[in-house]
Amino acid sequence: MSAKATVVIIEDEPAIADNLIHVLEMDGFNVCWFATGEQGLAYIADNTVELVVLDVGLPDVNGFELCKTIREFSDVAIIFLTARNDEIDRVVGLEIGADDYVTKPFSPREMLARIKLRIKKPTFFASQVVAPATYIDGQSTEPSTNTGGLISANFDYCVDGQMLGLTAVEFKILDKLISHSANVLSREQLLIAADIAPSASYERNVDSHIKAIRQKLKPFALADSIQTKRGFGYFYKQSPTL
């Protein structure tokens, strides 16, 4: 992690922002604080940012809606920091693309640890690019794992150059299934892969994510690539080698 990684804080309470700014700057981060969503969004759109700490209850825009807007053009890590601690809010926050969800009051030191963890993760995912086919004497040589034409790039998967438009959670789940295509993965394993703490209350939401991924694969006749092993979980069925 670069000592000058930039963290953007979008939070309208100065006392909360000050506490977080202090621990981040002491640890070598470059920190930019904005009290409104509009200001923060403008900065993120025009600058390189490694992570965004985002409040839900902002004075000018709902943080959930702002997260959706950011996800339209950026895969920057996003951590919600909010007083809203209902389960449904946590679920919604993660489903729309946030990487973590922290409720107030919070420990600045714990938040620092979560931020450092999230900033490290993308370097791993960015390396998980399936090599495109090469050609030798006019013959196509496919990658060692046949993914039906799915190529990983920019925290998404694409087919024939067309992106699926996966959310952060969907991408991590599909990436895990593809990289372990020989194995059946439980809902708990998929939650861990998506950086979500496993819990009985959230486990069934994996089914909703799988349904959404299948829907995005359907136009490419790849929806059946994700198979269900009843009573156990899911696995990715490799396309037959041509």
Automatic annotation (TrEMBL):
A Pfam family recorded for this sequence:
Trans_reg_C
Keyword Phosphoprotein included in the entry's annotation: yes
Q: Which residues carry this modification: 4-aspartylphosphate?
A: 55
| A GO-annotated cellular component | protein-DNA complex
Q: Which InterPro entries match?
A: CheY-like_superfamily (IPR011006), OmpR/PhoB-type_DNA-bd (IPR001867), Sig_transdc_resp-reg_C-effctor (IPR016032), Sig_transdc_resp-reg_receiver (IPR001789), WalR-like (IPR039420), WH-like_DNA-bd_sf (IPR036388)
Q: Locate the OmpR/PhoB-type domain: which residues?
A: 140-238
Q: Which domain of life is it from?
A: Bacteria
Gene Ontology molecular function, alphabetical = phosphorelay response regulator activity; transcription cis-regulatory region binding
Record domain Response regulatory: where = 6-119
| Residue range(s) of DNA binding per entry | 140-238
Q: Which UniProt keyword terms apply here?
A: DNA-binding, Phosphoprotein
Q: What biological process terms from GO does the record include? A: regulation of DNA-templated transcription
Record PANTHER family: REGULATOR OF RPOS, TRANSCRIPTIONAL REGULATORY PROTEIN CREB
Name of the featured protein: Response regulator
Q: What species is this protein from?
A: Shewanella pneumatophori
Q: Give the source lineage, highest ranks first.
A: Bacteria, Pseudomonadati, Pseudomonadota, Gammaproteobacteria, Alteromonadales
